[in-house]
Amino acid sequence: QMYCELLAEAVRKLKGEQPEPIPTAVIDLGFATYIPKNYIPLSRYRMDVYRKIAVAGDSDGLKQIAGELADVYGPVPDEVKLLLELAELRIEASKQDIKAIVISGRDLVFSFAKDASAQADSLFAKVKGTVRIPDPKTVYLHLPKNYFEPKTIMSVLQKIFSTTS
C-alpha cells in the first residue's frame, strides 16, 4: 500500500501535477471516534487503518477504505462509520481553509487560516444558530443545547459543508 502511494506521488510529480494535500484541519467535538478492538483485533492493523484514514485526501479515498474494511473484516460498525464521517468533514474543512473546529460551551468554534469574514454568511447560511465573528480568522456558531449529541453535531457540520461542495 505504502509503495503504491509513493509510486503514485512520483508519477504525479513527473507529470507536473500537484500532489494531493493531506487534510490538516483538526476537529475536536468532545467525543471519541475509534476502531473497536473486536472489529480489528490486532493493534498493528488498526494503526494501519488509522494512518490510511489520516492521509486520505478525498471522499473517494475514504469510500475505498470503507470498502476494504467491509471486505476484510465484515460490516463496518457505527464507531468506524463515525470515524470515517469525521475524516470526511476534516477533508471538507481543509478545503475551506479551516484549521480547527472545536466545541466551546454551546459554540462550535471555527479557526480559519485566512480572513473568513466574507465566506461566513454563505458557509453557515443553512444552519440554525447565531454566527459571531470576534476576529477575521475566528467564527463562533452558537447552537441550541440539544444539538451537541454526536450524530446531531455531525449532521450540522455535514450540512455546513454540503453548501460548499
Identify the quaternary structure here. single chain
Number of helices: 6
Q: Which structural category fits the helices and strands?
A: alpha+beta
Number of structurally distinct domains: 1
Write down the CATH class. Alpha Beta
Report the strand count.
5
How much beta, percentage-wise? 15-25%
The third-level CATH topology is: Aspartate Aminotransferase, domain 1
Output the CATH homologous superfamily.
Transcription-repair-coupling factor, D7 domain
Mean pLDDT: 89
Order of helices and strands: HEHHHEEHEEH
Largest sheet: 5 strands, mixed
Q: What is the radius of gyration computed over CA atoms, rounded to a whole number of angstroms?
A: 17 Å
State the helicity in percent bands.
40-55%
CATH architecture: Alpha-Beta Complex
Shape: flat
Distance between the termini: 29 Å
How are the elements arranged and paired?
Layout lengths: L1 H13 L11 E3 L14 H13 L3 H15 L4 H18 L2 E7 L2 E6 L4 H7 L6 E6 L2 E5 L7 H13 L3
Describe what you observe in this structure.
The protein is of the alpha+beta class. 48% of the residues lie in helices and 16% in strands. The protein has a single domain, classed as Transcription-repair-coupling factor, D7 domain (Aspartate Aminotransferase, domain 1, Alpha-Beta Complex), CATH 3.90.1150.50. Strands 1-2-3-5-4 form a 5-stranded mixed β-sheet, covered by helices on one side. It is flat and about 45 Å long.
List keywords for this structure.
alpha+beta, flat, Aspartate Aminotransferase, domain 1, 6 helices, 165 residues, single chain, five-stranded mixed beta sheet
